[in-house]
């Protein structure tokens, strides 16, 4: 209930102050209307250009990766998007723009305040905006601005072409000398290193090592066979006696042969057996074969030892020669790689010089017009409705608040007088 009474009293207060509120609101609104219609009309137009990396940048830029970092004069492109934005409002461009407009009243600051360059985010497009109080002049300035900068861009590219040619010729001569030095160094290395002879020696040593290894394997196999034969013969010879006994009946005829002239001995031996020993021919043959095999084994062992010593000696020679060949081949590979890099760079430079000459003769800038300016149909400023509407709303709120404040102080003063 109290809130309803307060709101009602509040409304009654504002109602009593309605003329006060109306006069302030009306007065401020009228002033804002007069102000809005007194402001000059501002027109805006724009043209859009695209920044295209020039042919010369593609000719020069890839060479940066092949030029020594500490070499002076290495190319770094200056025609970036930010560079173009700054050049568009440079003093040179603005002076030429003033001369082409032909308006003596305009100053450098005036023309600079009319121009604005905006970058289209994520693209290589630039928007050239012009704002003036004359829509015909607005389009005229925008057209001259684009035309003048196209001319300046062509001059920049032409100057860049001269710089590029100097740069490429300088690099061409430097790389030509470097290539000649690499070729001389490579030829001198081949002459002194005798790689062909060393490779031949290496091949011969490898063949020799294989022969020694093969001979050792054969001799070891032969030794094993001979040793097995000796063991086999020893086992076989153990089965036989060294001597054999020969027995036969003793007859008169036999005794006559043995005891001729000794009758007494002949009669005594008659009727008995005569026993004698003789060397077993099988045993004798095996002993001979064993002896021969032992001689053969001894010879094989000596031959094997010889092959082993020759194999080890040849292996060491081959190892030393292999290290030397690896060192020389590594150096040769490095020289060939350096020579190939120098040769490729030299060929690339020669090709780039031809491309640069063609691009320079074409004299084509790196700025392309995407859209030209048009005469604006309406002014973008002042925003009369916004000014009047804002003034009306602001003055109304201000007058209402002021009315309540005045009523509040009036009540306080009345209470003080009552006391």
Question: Could you give a short description of this structure?
Answer:
This protein has helices at residues 2-16, 18-38, 55-60, 81-88, 91-101, 108-114, 135-193, 195-237, 252-258, 263-269, 281-362, 384-418; strands spanning 43-51, 115-119, 125-132, 243-249, 273-279, 367-371. The protein has 419 residues and is α+β, with helices and mostly antiparallel strands. It contains twelve helices and six strands.
Describe this structure in words.
With 419 residues, the protein is of the alpha+beta class. It has two domains: 247 residues, Bacterial polysaccharide co-polymerase-like (2-Layer Sandwich); 117 residues, Helix Hairpins. Helices cover 72% and strands 10% of the residues. Strands 2-3-1-6 form a four-stranded antiparallel sheet. Strands 4-5 form a two-stranded antiparallel sheet. α2 runs antiparallel to α12, α5 runs antiparallel to α7 and α7 runs antiparallel to α11. The radius of gyration is 60 Å and the shape is elongated.
Radius of gyration: 60 Å
Largest beta sheet: what is the strand line-up?
2-3-1-6
Instruction: Please write the string of helix (H) and strand (E) elements.
Output: HHEHHHHEEHHEHHEHEH
Task: Provide the CATH top-level class of the largest domain.
Answer: Alpha Beta
Q: What's the pLDDT, averaged over the residues?
A: 81
Outline the biggest β-sheet: 4 strands, antiparallel
The appropriate CATH architecture of the largest domain is: 2-Layer Sandwich
- What is the helical fraction, as a range of percent? over 70%
| Total separate domains | 2
């Amino acid at each position: 209930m109290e809130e309803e009474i307060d709101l009602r009293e509040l409304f009654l207060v504002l109602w009593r102050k309605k003329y006060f509120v109306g006069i302030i609101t009306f007065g401020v609104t009228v002033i804002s209307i007069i102000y809005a219609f007194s402001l000059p009309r501002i027109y805006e137009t724009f043209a859009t250009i695209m920044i295209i990396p020039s042919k010369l940048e593609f000719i020069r830029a890839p060479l940066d990766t092949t030029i020594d970092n500490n070499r002076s004069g290495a190319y770094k492109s200056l025609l970036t998007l930010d560079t173009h934005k700054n050049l568009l409002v440079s003093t040179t461009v603005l002076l030429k723009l003033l001369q082409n407009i032909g308006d003596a009243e305009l100053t450098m600051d005036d023309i600079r305040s009319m121009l604005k360059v905006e970058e289209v985010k994520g693209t290589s497009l630039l928007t050239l905006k012009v704002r003036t109080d004359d829509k015909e002049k607005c389009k005229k300035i925008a057209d001259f601005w684009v035309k003048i900068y196209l001319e300046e861009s062509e001059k920049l590219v032409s100057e860049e072409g001269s710089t590029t040619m100097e740069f490429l010729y300088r690099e061409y001569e430097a790389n030509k000398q470097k290539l000649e030095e690499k070729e001389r160094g490579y030829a001198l290395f081949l002459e002194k290193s005798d790689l062909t002879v060393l490779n031949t020696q290496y091949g011969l040593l490898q063949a020799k090592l294989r022969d020694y290894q093969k001979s050792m394997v054969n001799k070891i196999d032969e030794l094993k066979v001979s040793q097995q034969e000796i063991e086999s013969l020893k086992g076989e010879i153990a089965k036989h006696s060294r001597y054999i006994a020969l027995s036969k009946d003793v007859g008169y005829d036999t005794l006559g042969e043995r005891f001729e002239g000794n009758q007494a001995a002949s009669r005594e031996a008659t009727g008995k057996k005569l026993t004698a020993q003789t060397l077993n021919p099988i045993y004798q043959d095996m002993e001979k074969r064993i002896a021969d095999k032992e001689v053969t084994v001894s010879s094989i062992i000596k031959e094997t030892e010889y092959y082993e010593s020759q194999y080890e000696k040849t292996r060491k020679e081959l190892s030393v020669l292999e290290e030397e060949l690896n060192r020389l081949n590594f150096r040769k590979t490095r020289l060939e790689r350096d020579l190939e890099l120098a040769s490729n760079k030299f060929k690339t430079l020669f090709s780039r010089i031809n491309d640069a000459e063609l691009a320079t003769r074409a004299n084509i800038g790196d700025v392309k017009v995407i859209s030209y300016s048009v005469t604006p149909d309406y002014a973008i400023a002042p925003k009369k409705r916004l000014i009047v509407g804002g003034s009306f709303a602001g003055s109304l709120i201000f007058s209402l608040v002021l009315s309540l404040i005045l009523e509040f102080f009036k009540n306080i003063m009345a209470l003080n007088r009552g006391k």
